[in-house]
Amino acid sequence: MKWLYRLISACMAFLFAAPLVWMLVVSIKEEGMKIITVLDWFKPPYSLDVYKEILTGTKLTAWIGNSLLVAVLVMVLTVSVAALAGFALSKIPFRYRTFMFFVVLAGLLIPGEATIIPLYQVAKDMDLLNSYQGLIIPALASPVAVIVLKSFFDGIPNDLLESVQIDGGGTWRIFFRIVLPLTRPALASMAILTFIGSWNNFLWPFLSITDDNLFTLPMGIPTLMSQYSEDYVKPMVINAIASIPIIILFVTFERQIVKGISMSGIKG
Amino acid sequence: MRMKKMRADVQALMFLLPFLVVYVLFTIWPMIKGVEMTFYKWTLIKKMDFIGLDNYRQVLQDREVWEALWHSAIFVVLTTPTMIVLSISLALIANRQSVLQKFYRSIFFIPSVLSVAVASYLGLFVFQPYTGLVNSILHLIQMLPGDKEIFWLTERSLAWIVITLITLWWTVGFNFILHLSAIQEIPDEIYEAAKLDGANDNQIFWRITLPYLTPITKTIMMLQIIASFKVFMQIYIITGGGPLDQTRPIIQLIYQTGFRKNNLGYAATMSYLLFVILLVLSALQYWVNNRKGAEDR
User: Rounded distance, CA A3 to CA A9, Å?
Assistant: First the structure.
C-alpha cells in the first residue's frame, strides 16, 4: 500500500510541477526550434537571448514595476486603514459601535464584481481612470481585513491596555506601542494576502487602464501574447519573467503565507 | 462622564475615518450610483436618456443573460466538488511524514501565486493541439495516434474541462493549505486510540479525518461557490468565452455590454441581477456557518 501512496503522491507533484518546468525549459531554448515529439522540447541548444530581448525590447519590466508598486502600496495602505478601523471597533467604547460593526460586516456581502460598472463611472467622474491613484485607492477599503484584524485585537486583554492608560498613555500610544506589536503576525499575514490579491487583480485594471505605460502585469501579458502566437519561446520567456519574482517572494515568505492562510481561514 | 464619552466618539471617528472615506466613496456610492444608471440608456461618454424600467424588463427576457448566468453556474458545479476532493487529497499527501513533505507543500501551492494571466496562458499552451504538452505526451505514450490531434478548445465540453483543470491547478493551493492545517490540528491521541481499537487506514480516514474536516470543508465550499460564480479572467484568456459564446460567464457579458456595446446602463442592470444571486449565496453561507457554530456549542 505504501508504494501506491508514494506513486500517487509523485504523480500529483509531477502534474503540478510539469507546466512550470516546461515553461522554464522552453524559455531557455533557441527560437524557431522544430518540435516533432515531446522530447524535442527538452533537447539543447539552450540560450538566454530571448530573455534579453524581452527584457529590453518590451515594456514587461515596467509592467512588473507597476504591479509591484501598486501591490506594495495597496498592501501597506490597506493594512494601515484596516488596523485603524479594527482598533476602533475592538477597543474604543464609542456610541454606535455595534452599528458601525454591522456597516463593515455588510461590506462583506457586497461583491466588487457586481458594482464594477458604477465604480467605473464614479472613478471617471473623479478623474481617477488611467492613473496609479485609480489603481490603488479604490482597493483600500477591505471589510475582510477590518473584521479579521478586529478579531485579533479582541484577543488582547483590556487590563493590559488599562494599565498603560493609568501610566498616562493615550489611545494612539496604546495602538502603536501595544496593539500593533502584539498582533504583528496577524498584520504580516494580512499584508501578504493583500499583496497576492493585488498582484493577481485583473478586472479593475483591465477596465480602468488604457494607457499601456500604466498596465499591470496581468493586463500587459495578454497584450504581448497577442503578438507572438507562432513560436513558444517568447511567450514562455514572458511567463517566466512574470513568475520568477513572485515565486522567489513566495519561497522567502512561505512560512508567513502558510500561517496567514491557515490563521485567517479566508481566501486571498 | 459625558465628556469622556464624547472623547471616545471623536477618537473612534479618527480611527475609522480613513476606512469610511474609501468605503463610502468606492463601495457604497457606486452601489447607489448604479441604481441611477439602471434607469438610463447610459453610454461611455455619458449621453443619457431616461428609459425608466426598460433595462429591467429587457434583462429578464434577455436569453444571452440567462445563458451567461447558466455558464457561470456550470463553472460552479464543475469546480466546487473537484476542488474539495483535490484539496483534501493534496492535504493528505503533504501531511504524510516524509522527507518530501516540504516539497509537496510548496509545489501544490506555488501555482496559486502566479498571476492569472500567466496561469491561463501556460494552460493554454499546455493544451494547444500539435505543439502543446498534453497532446505531445499523449502522442509519446501512444494514447493518441501520431496523425490525430485533440482540439481542446473548439468543443464545448472539452473547453470546460480545460478551464476547470487550469482553474484547479491555479487555485487549489489556498484551500489545500486550509485543509492541511485543519488535518494537523487533529489530536494525535485520537488516531492512537483508533489504532489500538484496530481501525485500519480506511476507517481512520472516513471516521476520523473526514468528520474533523467538515467545518472547514463547508466554509471552503461556500467560498468556492461564491468565488466561482464571479469567474471571468481565466475563461476570458483561455477560450474568450468561446466556442460560440458557449463558455461565456456573466461577468464577461457585463463587460462586453458595458464597454464593447457601449451600454453601461444595461450592464449595470445585469450586475444587479448578479448581485442578487451573490447576496443569496452569501446569506446561504452565513446560514451554513451559523449552523456550524450551533453544532459546535
Answer: 10
CA separation, residue A171 to residues A69, A80, A181 (Å): 32, 16, 15
Cβ contact A85:A104 at 8 Å:
yes
For B40-296, CATH number?
A: 1.10.3720.10
Place of cell 449565496: B281
Domains with residue ranges and CATH for chain A: 59-263 (1.10.3720.10)
Q: Which long-range contacts does A177-185 make (Cβ < 8 Å, 24+ apart)?
A: A179/A87, A179/A91, A179/A153, A180/A83, A182/A156, A183/A149, A183/A152, A183/A153, A183/A156, A185/A256, A185/A259, A185/A263
* pLDDT value of residue B1: 61
pLDDT tens, residue by residue, B234-289: 999 998 887 888 899 999 999 999 998 899 999 999 999 999 999 898 888 878 77
Q: pLDDT (tens digit, 9 = 90+) per residue, A182-207? A: 998 889 888 988 998 898 888 899 99
Smallest CA–CA distance, residue A68 to chain B, in Å, is 12
> Using an 8 Å Cβ cutoff, are A152 and A186 in contact?
yes
**CA neighbours closer than 13 Å in the CB half-sphere of residue B128:** 16
Residues of A in Cβ contact (< 8 Å) with B131: 35, 232
Q: Name residues 190-209 of chain A within 8 A of B (Cβ).
A: 196, 199-200, 202-203, 206-207
Chain A residues lying within 8 Å of B222, measured CB to CB: none
The pLDDT tens digits for A71-107 are 999 999 999 999 999 999 999 989 899 999 999 988 8
Residue in B with minimal Cα distance to A192: B113
What ipTM is given for this predicted complex? Answer: 0.87
- Residue to substitute from A37, A103, A115, A202, interface B, most B β-carbons within 10 A: A115
